[in-house]
Hints:
Elements: E1 4-9, H1 18-23, H2 36-45, E2 48-55, H3 61-70, E3 74-78, H4 88-91, H5 95-101, E4 107-116, H6 124-141, E5 145-150, H7 153-164, H8 166-169, E6 178-180, H9 187-195, E7 199-202, H10 212-220, E8 226-228, H11 250-261, H12 265-279
Parallel strand pairs: 1-2, 2-3, 3-4, 4-5, 5-6, 6-7, 7-8
Helix pairs in contact: 5-6, 6-7, 7-9, 11-12
Amino acid sequence: MTLLVDSHCHLDFPDFNPQARAEKGEQGGTKDAETLDVFVNRAHEAGVGHMLTICTHPERIAATHAIIERFASVYGAAGVHPHEAATPSAMAMTDDDIAALAAHPKIVGIGETGLDFYYDHAPKAVQEEGFRRHCRVARRLGLPIIVHTRDADDDTIRILTDEARTEEGGADLPPLTGVIHCFSGGPGLAEAAVDLGFMISFSGILTFRRSEEIRAIAQSVPMENLLVETDAPYLAPMPKRGKRNEPSYVVHTARILAEVKAVDFDDLAAATTANFFRLLAKI
């Protein structure tokens, strides 16, 4: 079996923890009692060999450590989501504080970070400074940056281009590498990301009926720049749309991406898996 990778999920979220859901007063059917072991095992059975779980706030780093230490097939990334950029703890973070999040041997990326001007949960200037701080740390540590961007294509391109310049960090630092996760931008963002050597990761959005533009962009992205993800528990792909997303569902997105690229599914799986390990060289 050719193995896939879910390059972006949130296994620390309450959606995968029945005890946490109960503490929030949420009740449901039998499936709501499923533990994280069930979700990880189901991913393995579907051919998903590895998962990258994303810590979106430093207060959740202990939960992320517990997961990546428990499951050999799960690695982590850590940073501050742009939605959280204006929280007091995030505002107080220094470059060293962000770097400390990546001290664990199985934390292999920085983020997710970036810009979200759709919801604007944090002022734009605060989001930009946080984004740049994560970029600096990523270069300093030689780790890829996981970028969230929504309704912010031009500013995302500007910041990544600035931070990728050698003079911005010093000639002795590694180049800036990373991935635009859950791609939902325009062709200009995709082209700029590829020019910078970034990966572009497609989620269940790719499978939605009205995502013709996203599929056209995916068709144009070189195979060596492609990743697939779930962003679980969000954005379940067709035919699972409307359900809680989980890592095993990345197979559905990968099948549509293979159709879009006009390649065999096994070739798409092999390419995206190789791209994952090339990007996350710390593994």
